[in-house]
Amino acid sequence: MSPIEAAADDLQDLAALWSIGEARAHDVVEAACAALVAGLDSPALRILAGYTRAEAQYELPDLLPVVLDELGLTFYPRDGEAGPEAAVRAFAHQLLAGKVTPRELALRIHQRFGHQLPLAERLAELDDECDSIEYGDRTLVQLDAEVTVEARRLVYGPPSDTA
């Protein structure tokens, strides 16, 4: 993946997390700055990257849809229906990028969505298993590996049979 593609993915993920209240406006501004440095560019992206923390808090809701549209990315309105699934995938990206541990991913997904979001159900179940590890026959290492497999499935889709 090129630096530009990675920056676009990071911006998309932070926008999705922001849409459900899991990222701050200034985190999105920092991602916009990183995107510019990586070579991604658009007029609205330059404006967003120049916001102060205070400006970001108030201006992001109006500018973010424009930025994402200019870059060919998807905007998820705050509290919209598609945002939670995009946010689950963004959380999974964080695990695969080494920003969170498998247990942190499972816990955050479970705390945020409970067992209410079908896409995230397996991660919530794995968090339940982590909580009761002493009563089961699996180890935390095994559960961490399964969380990682689930994160890969969420990000890249199910493994294809090549045999």
Low-confidence stretches: none
Structural class: mainly alpha
Tell me the overall shape: elongated
Mean pLDDT, all residues: 92
Number of helices: 8
| End-to-end separation | 26 Å
Report the portion of residues in β strands.
under 5%
Mind describing the biggest β-sheet? none
Report the radius of gyration as a whole number of Å. 17 Å
Q: What helical percentage do the residues reach?
A: 55-70%
What is the H/E order?
HHHHHHHH
As for the number of domains, it is: 2
Strand element count: 0
What's the arrangement of secondary structure elements?
Layout lengths: L2 H17 L5 H14 L4 H7 L3 H18 L12 H14 L5 H12 L7 H11 L8 H17 L7
Helix pairs in contact: 1-2, 1-5, 2-3, 2-4, 3-4, 5-6, 5-8, 6-7, 6-8, 7-8
Task: Give a structural overview.
The protein is an all-alpha fold and 163 residues long. The chain has two domains: 3-70, no CATH class; 83-156, no CATH class. 67% of the residues lie in helices and 0% in strands. It is built from eight helices and no strands. It has helices at residues 3-19, 25-38, 43-49, 53-70, 83-96, 102-113, 121-131, 140-156. Helix 1 (3-19) crosses helix 5 (83-96), helix 5 crosses helix 8 (140-156) and helix 7 runs antiparallel to helix 8 (140-156). The mean pLDDT is 92.
